[in-house]
Amino acid sequence: MIVHDPDHRLWILSGPSSCYVLHLDEAARLRTLHWGPRLTREQALSLLLLPQPERRSMEDPADGVLDLAAAGGLRYGQAGLQVRFADGTRDLDLGYTGERRTDRELVLEFADRHYPLTVECRYRIYGDSDVIERHLVLRNAGEPVTVARADSATWVLPRLNGYRLSCVRGQWAAETRLHRSELPYGETMLTSRRGVTSHQANPWAMIDDGTASEEYGMVYSCALAWSGSWRLTAQRLPTERVTLSAGAGHDPVTWELGSGEELVTPVCAALYTEGGFGAASRAWHDHQLRHVLPHAGETRPVLYNSWEATGFDVSLEGQVQLAEKAARMGIELFVVDDGWFGARTHDAAGLGDWHPNPQRFPHGLGPLIDRVHELGMRFGLWVEPEMVNADSDLYRAHPDWVIHRPHRTRTEHRNQLVLDLSRPQVATWLYRTLDELLAKNDIDFLKWDMNRPFTEAGPDERLWIDHVRTLYDVLDRLRAAHPHVRIESCSSGGGRVDLGILRRTDQVWTSDNTDALDRLDIQHGFSQLYPARVMGAWVTDSPNPYTGRQVPLDFRFHVAMAGVLAIGGALTEWSQADLARAAELVAAYKRIRPLVQHGRQYRLLPPNGELSAVQYLARDGGQLAVLVFRRARRFGHADPGIPLRGLDAQARYRDQATGQVHHGVVLLTHGLFADLAPGDYTSALVHLIREEG
C-alpha cells in the first residue's frame, strides 16, 4: 500500500511488515525519513518532529539522507545521479513537478530548473513481499546531455550502533564466497567492469549493525537486476549516515542522451528484515519465486551434461551411449554440451556457426533427439551465441561484428571474440539463428553460455548497456516463440547470476568448480540471495577434474542435492556399483526435490566447521529434509546434535529411512543427530515427515 499525505509532502510505501517513508523538504529535495518496521500514518508524521542535524561548516546536512542523490550544491558524498550539459555545466538543480501513483506503484517527477531534463523516480511494492523495487527514467528535450552516473536507487539506512557489510567475492571456479567485514568510512565500491555480472563480485549487499546472526537481528539489503557491468557503492559518512547506491555501468563509461531520448535504468530492489541473515535470505528467495522467475512453480528436472564425459569428442553413437546410461539412472534431461556444431572439434574454431557438424551428425540432430525422447528424457543443447571464433564462417563473413576499437589488437580470450549485440544487424542475426535452431529441432532446453568478458569496448555506454538489452530482448522473444523451451544461464560457471537474468531464465550454472568440498562454500554464499530452485549443482568424477580431490560418491551427491541436481561425470567409466548407487541417490533426491526447490531454506551450520548442515522445510510444515556434511573428524570427537528450525514444537516427525520418531521440541533444542559414517567427507540425508494426530 502507498499512502500520500500532500499537506506534509510525505509518502509511505508499506509492505506486509516494513515500510519506506519519503519526504519532500522545503528545498524540494527527496529525503528518506524511515526504512524499517511498518509505521502508521500518524507514526510516520511524527518523524517530521524529530530533531534535525545541526548544520556544520563545509557540510550539508542533506548528505547521506537523500533518496534522490544528485550531484550539486554543497553535497560532496556519493552522488547517484551525475550529468554534464552541453555548455559544460555539471550540477543538477532539480525541482519537484508532481506525482502519479496506484496502490502498488509510485512515480515522483522532477525537472532541472534551467535545462530541459526531467527525472522520474519510480517505485513498486508488492502485497506479499517486503521487497521494494526502484529505478529512474531520465528524459532530455534539449541539447545532448552526458550522463556520467545514473544509479537506479540510493537506499538510506537509519542510524545504527555499527555497520557491517556482507557481500560475496570470488573468481572463476571460486564464485559467491561470503565475506563480512566492518564497513569502513568513505566509499566502499563493489563493481564489475567486464560487461557481465562477473565471478569476482555479485550486485548485492547487506548491512547490519555488526551483531546480527543467522537467526537474530535487523538486516538491510539491496540487489541490482542487471547482467552487465555494474557498480554498488556503500557510503559511510563521518556523521554515521550510511547509504547503498547501485546502478548499471562503471567509471569512466558515460551515456550520451540525445534530444528527445530517454534513459531507463535497471531495477534495484531492496529489503528490510528482522530475524537475521536467514530471514533475509528466505525473504529474497520467496520474492524471486513469486515475482522474478518465469516458471517458478515448475520442478526442475534432474539433468545430465555430457561435457566432462566427452569434451569435444562428440558423436551420435557416443551421445546415445551416454543417454542410455543416464536414462537407467533416472535422469530426466539429457544435455549435449560443446562440440556438436560447425567445425567445433577444438576450442579455436566453429563458434558462430550454429548448425550440426555434418561429419558427427550427418542427418542432423534429429536422430539423437528422437532417441533421447524415446528414453523418456527431455533434450538440451549447449550454445554460446554471443561469441565467435576467428576461425568460423561467421567471422570470415562479418569481421566487423565483434566488439573492437580502431588501431587496437582484437584481444582473444579462449580463442574467442565477443559479438557486438548493440549493432542491429547482429541482434537480428542472433534471434533468427536461435529461432531457426529451435524451430527445426525438438529442443527442450538451452544451456546458454558466455565465456569471456568484454575487451576493446571503449567508453560508449550504448554498447555496454545495449548489449545487455539485446540479450534480454532475444531471450524474451525466444521464450515467447518457443514457450516449452527452458534456459540455463551460464558464464564460465557463475559469471552471470543476477536478478535481471533470472527474470528470463529458469536456472543458473553456479560454478565450473564441481569439487563437492569447495561447493559447500560456493553454495553457502549463493544462498544468501538466490534460491536453491535456480542453483545448478553437478555430481562429477573423483578425483575431481579441477581440484584432484577424491570425495565419496554419496558426499558428492548430497552436496549437489542442495540445489538442482545434475550429473556430469563420464558414466561409461563408472563402475556398476557406482551406477546402481547413483540411481538410488537420484531417486532419493526426487523424493525431497519439492522441499529443496519449493520449500524454505535454513542454513543450520556454516561450511567452515567440521560439520555443516542445511535444512529445507515444506511451506505447510509437513515435511523437511536435512543434509549434513562432515569435512573432517578431529580428535575423535562425537558429532553434536544440530538444532533444526521452523518446526512445530508439539508435533512428532518420523524419519523415512529408519522409522525413528522425533519430537519437534527435542529437534529444536537438542537437535538432530545424523548417522554419519566414520572418517572424513561423510554425509547424510535425513527426510522427516510430520505425523498426523
From TrEMBL:
Task: Kindly list the positions annotated as binding substrate.
Answer: W172, D337, D338, R414, K447, W448, D449, M450, N451, C490, D512
Q: Which GO terms describe its biological process?
A: carbohydrate catabolic process
Where the record annotates domain Glycosyl hydrolase family 36 N-terminal, the positions are: 30-257
- Which EC number(s) does the record attach to this protein? 3.2.1.22
Glycosyl hydrolase family 36 C-terminal domain boundaries = 612-688
**Keywords recorded for this protein, A-Z:** Glycosidase, Hydrolase
Transmembrane stretches, start-end: none
Q: Which reaction does it catalyse?
A: Hydrolysis of terminal, non-reducing alpha-D-galactose residues in alpha-D-galactosides, including galactose oligosaccharides, galactomannans and galactolipids
List the InterPro entries hit by this protein, alphabetically.
Answer: Aldolase_TIM, Alpga-gal_N_sf, Alpha-glycosidase_related, GH, Glyco_hydro_36, Glyco_hydro_36_C, Glyco_hydro_36_N, Glyco_hydro_b
Q: Which GO terms describe its molecular function?
A: alpha-galactosidase activity
Pfam families tied to this protein: Glyco_hydro_36C (PF16874), Glyco_hydro_36N (PF16875), Melibiase (PF02065)
Superkingdom is Bacteria
The protein's matches in Gene3D superfamilies, at most eight in alphabetical order, are given as: Aldolase class I, alpha-galactosidase from lactobacil brevis, Golgi alpha-mannosidase II
Active site per the UniProt annotation:
D449, D512
Its top-level enzyme class, in one word, is hydrolase
Q: Which family does it belong to?
A: Belongs to the glycosyl hydrolase.
Q: What is this protein called?
A: Alpha-galactosidase
Species per Swiss-Prot/TrEMBL record? Nonomuraea turkmeniaca
